[in-house]
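Usage

Read records sequentially. Each one opens with the input sequence:
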Amino acid sequence: MASPTPARRIVIIGGGAAGIGAAGAARGTDREAEITVYTEYEDAAYSPCGIPYVHGGEIPDFERLFLGTKQQYADQGIDIHYQTAVQAIDARGRNVRVGNGPPVPYDALVIASGWDYGKPDVPGADLAGIYYMKNIREAMRWDKVLDGVRSAVVLEAQPLGMEMVTALCHRGIETHLVDPSPWALSMATDPDIVAPVQESWQEMGAHLHFNTKLEAILGDESGRVRGVATTDGEIACDLVVVCTHKEPRTELGAAAGVAVGSAGGFSVDETMSTSVPGIWAAGDCAEIPHGVSNVPIQGLSGSHAYAQGKVAGVNAAGGRRVYQPVYVPWAMVAGKWMIGGVSFSETLATALGIPFVTGQAQGISRARYFPDVKPVRVKLLAEPGGLRLIGAQMVGGEGIKERADFLAMAVRKGITLHDLATMENVYSPPIGALNEPIAMAAQDALARLER
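and closes with the structure output:
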């Protein structure tokens, strides 16, 4: 009688969206596999993006941010080791080293090690009172601290930073935003689109310091934060919230010979496979080609990380699934507005040397006579000549997420301004206006070209 085939051993480094997505997909692909997840944190699979909304009071408690219980993962046959960091990867021997125990062998390894904030390279960066908003257990502790904070400085208007400015204002804390760029989220937005957000922050009491570099974090005699020094002068504060750019965590994989690409993340193919056989990577530690420019990009959203993790998990378990180039729909609530976009802003397209034509329109979200109608502004970018859509930005009171999703698919499928100018749209007074702002923006672009 033939001996039974040994179970496939799949090891996953990281318990975030990509890691848990990989574990679930691997289990669905191979019911007999031994799936082991290592995370250095106390929990797995929660939403860091929801933390600002708990701080701001829109979400009543942190428990709602967890996507599943520890018992649920155990019941699925996923062995998660909490507060356990992988110290080294031996790609040749196909094992990982964890603590002082023997090496843990694997047949397939998924690296989903995530990201860290770029640590401010200034004096005082190790003072007490500096909050890196990421780990939910730390967020729970900091939430209690916020009750006694009078003034806070948020470093950089990246997405989480923008949400934290809003949250702290809702909390009644004097809030300062310090950012070296000329406007919020400058690599993804244009100043005219983000202007309503910034104006609403000021209406909420926030102080905005753009074109301003951090020079030092200042401490008192006890070693706690008392303020920051910037190129615009000193700002007194009790708390500094670090929301700087995401830096992919690639040290483990790079030390094992996994290739790192031009965007700083692991280079992967369409199956999320790295340069080393038997090793896949997913989430913020990996980089993915942009569907229009083909330039590798990194540091996307939780939905991207989860989808990449599922692709890596299927393939690590012996299945076959591919991940498409990305067009990056995004949206968020900031200040009193929703803001979002797809692919390129005018600013980014210009910086990359990508030619474009534009159209924009100011519309409304519902029939003009329906209560609580909201403004919706849309800007479209298209390539000259064929007028294929390559990017979009929006700001408004509602309906931004849905339009971003639709326009990302439009970019992916090569929809043109002519298509959008004549698109059908739902007209229903409570949910849709007679004239769709996307169509109006496309019509505006065509009219400009005719002129």
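Summary fields computed downstream for this record:
- The radius of gyration is 24 Å.
- The mean pLDDT is 95.
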